[in-house]
User: Which sequence fits this backbone?
DNA sequence: CCCACAGATTGCGTGCCACGCATATAGTGC
DNA sequence: GCACTATATGCGTGGCACGCAATCTGTGGG
């Protein structure tokens, strides 16, 4: 049962990590990010402050943990798409998967409007680039160390999703995030499809 | 002479800001970013520690100030290109301008390999996006609040330059940064030229 | 020439936080 | 039941951001 025991531990760690992250996000939304104290986050999550920073090394990281995990999943979603699917379709599908359930408007707006969280949010999006690049490289069969195409496309796609989030927030709220993301990705399609004829 | 006096003050502020930023970068390269103390940066720049954080609110911000200013200039460079130049050419030209003089390899490598600085570096690149987007929007005559194209392209271009930096660092050093950047931007050209027929 | 004023620098005090170290606890395999 | 490892926690230390108030500096007016 070694593996299962390890799984148990991993699950537990993930659970507390998510608990802390959720607590941090909730408090940041309620009180505003700069006012949140580490002690409060830890209390809310039911752990010691010392334990809190076994998981996160800054308040920003804890608040944006949700975004980070989302971004990671977006990259992995592309890897999981069927290999015979055209690259452009696979990318759009992976992004749309990642967009469900709809992001939390209030939380996203809080993050976007807080300069201190901006860097962390950008890091979260950047985290999606490596798996995206790997998936693209594998799909079109090039070496990402030699050819810059996968990295460039990954960065462009991540950027398009980020821009979609911004426009979705500023919009009138009647368009779903997935639709906005589809529109932004459309602008990239000529570049994406060019390399996968 | 009111205006000139104001100019003088602005120049002075800019000078001390650059002095502090340069000192921070130099010390970070020499000793490694986490070992640099605020007191040392301030001493090196000839100001008080208290003055240092009138200009920067974190060590990371000071160390990456040079990158931030660079990124800003890249955005403004596009605005300054002749209006009749095709968008794709103007973008490439602006990036190449921004690439001279060649970035400092050691400094860039230090920043790229320090996780704490990663967020700040990403913020620096993101700063270039707004002027880039504005320039693109003006050039093709669309409203950036309605049309996502300028923002998406700005993010893609900034991402391509960032990727170029990474590949340039990992390369054998015989290719200039400008050349690598040209290659990465080439991958975006189909998307860029599509909207400016 | 002196004064008033605004902007910039600086010193000091306060509160917050990241992190190393040592310890307690819990869950696992033998 | 026992040894072991991973995790949680307490405590202490050092560093840093920032508010506040005093000081310094350069500028323009009387």
Assistant:
């Amino acid at each position: 049962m070694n593996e299962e025991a390890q799984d148990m531990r991993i699950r537990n760690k993930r659970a507390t990590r998510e608990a802390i992250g959720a607590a941090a996000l909730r408090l940041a939304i309620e009180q505003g990010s700069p006012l949140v104290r580490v002690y409060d986050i830890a209390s809310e999550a039911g752990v010691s402050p010392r334990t809190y920073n076994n998981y996160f090394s800054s308040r920003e990281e804890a608040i944006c943990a949700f975004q980070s995990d989302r971004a990671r999943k977006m990259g992995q979603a592309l890897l999981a798409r069927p290999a015979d699917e055209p690259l452009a379709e696979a990318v759009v599908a992976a992004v749309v998967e990642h967009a469900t359930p709809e992001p939390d408007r209030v939380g996203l707006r809080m993050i976007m409007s807080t300069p201190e969280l901006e860097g962390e949010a950008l890091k979260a999006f950047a985290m999606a680039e490596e798996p995206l690049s790997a998936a693209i490289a594998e799909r079109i069969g090039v070496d990402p160390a030699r050819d810059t195409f996968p990295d460039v496309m990954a960065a462009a796609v991540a950027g398009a999703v980020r821009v979609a989030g911004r426009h979705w927030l500023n919009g009138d709220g009647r368009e779903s995030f997935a639709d906005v993301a589809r529109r932004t990705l459309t602008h990239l399609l000529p570049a994406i499809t060019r390399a996968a004829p």
Notes: The domain at 2-62 of chain B is CATH 1.10.10.60 (Arc Repressor Mutant, subunit A). Chain B has a mean pLDDT of 91. Chain B is about 75% helix and 0% strand.
